[in-house]
């Protein structure tokens, strides 16, 4: 494994994720190592103790940290009952205690009933004992009904607390912003403080020369670590890497906006994934320079012919069986219900969903819908693969699909999955979201369908399956894949590093696919 020289500046890539499926974190770390920096990739410990290691790009130190989420979970576990849930338990401990006590009482009653059956007593004593036992069972039934009612109200209050989308919650978030100003994020999103507790000491110990903060949640942690380091005489540059992401509620949106306004002006450089969003960030936060743009694309590399088995082999399908894939997180806004509803009309077509969590509730909903339609055997759910392997893994499929709905955050930049389909040389079928439809129609690498229209989705898939070679040839025209390569996209990022830390000599032992240089 190649390693950077001891004198190389230290770069910490900080992500609020478990890293296994975080392609952006892996690609940033690989580009920094290829440019000659000493890189530590920091993320969450999904399982096991903090510090457990896993797969990382060559030359990158991987550090996983346990994020306890104590402050975040307390808010969810101690919901405010309000007028709709006046009987709800006031905390998770109370809820668990009462249900455990009820279970223990049920066990005692069952044991007492068995005792009355097996132990001989005179008839009057036995009749009295059974009468007392019947009274105990009746009291237990009342207690069970009362506990069930309070538990149901508690669970409803927790669900309402977890997704605060109602008018009262929105008004409370706005009022908190008016009272506390930019500091309101501390109250509205305690998870940001949990990240400080977990990641802050790690950054203090590493003493990097540059922190690359991925996403809006790590921004404040990185800036505060830089301030503490500067107080000890050690200069730390902060690069903020962000993209447009939709928030689940007004509360989360207000907290994010306040957090970004507090710390974005204090960064030394900003990176994002689209020109339009770069302009928006500069205007919103009064940045002195336009953010650098580095789209989240895979490195360019030729694919072998025939393509490796990959996803087709994992689904146990023969080469002639048509297969479409969707790679990415699951959720109602992803449009996967349209894919499942179309399967009965697409005959032998199989669909593979590559998701971070195959046990996700929405995945179970999709599987139930597939069972109702009689196509359960043609729906395959697979876990993520390492980011470096995604294009090769997908290349044995026939179509890549992105049936996302028209949401504001979908209108800003092409998602990473679109580029991964392209590097897998897959024809695509995408919804008519503008940012997806425009390049697809310009390049001719797929078909566009009306968002949420199952019949039109069936038409688009059928068109691609009729002549897939036509759509694959679109990738051979011009330099579209070379432009959509991490080698090309990483150049602005490494230029920013060089301005902040000074240029480095690329490591000669790393592969050419990792080096952030333009391809001839």
From TrEMBL:
Ranges for region Disordered: 291-310
Pfam families tied to this protein: Glyco_trans_1_4 (PF13692)
GO MF terms, alphabetically ordered: glycosyltransferase activity
Keywords: Transferase
Pro residues compositional bias, start-end: 299-310
SUPFAM superfamilies linked: UDP-Glycosyltransferase/glycogen phosphorylase
Protein name (database record): D-inositol 3-phosphate glycosyltransferase
